[in-house]
Amino acid sequence: MKILFVCTGNICRSPMAEGILRHKLHAARIEAEIDSCGFETFHVGDHPDSRAQTVCKKNNIDISSHTSRLFRKQDFDHFDRIYVMDSSHYHGVSRTARSAGDMKKVDYILNILYPGSNTEVDDPWYHDVQAFERTYKQLEAACDLLVKELRPVIKEQK
Question: Which residues of the chain have pLDDT under 50?
Fold first, then answer.
């Protein structure tokens, strides 16, 4: 299973989601490829926001080595699932999609918790570290359910 998380600059929400899911899958002994990316060219090559790193580190997750990259059409070929954080990311991904088949891979990450709601992950960028903690909790809850969902899927693929 290959999973991609998408946000704006790939320095807050999506690297947090990537780190959380990677950590949880490792603990569950589930092998999967996890990555993240964004749409904002300004942050390409940057490491995650220091507040995102602080909150993840507080939860024993190290995202400091991540470097931001852009979403690209080839991601549809490489990844099985593509999770977006909000409607702007969904629209960005849909504008890049080449077919309905590409879009079948795309969903809002919080639809795992609230199916069909298209609930957005709070963007902590303009706020203090407490906003990053709230975002972490949203992503952690979604990743917990995603790990439960992936267990039988991964076993079937083996």
Answer: none
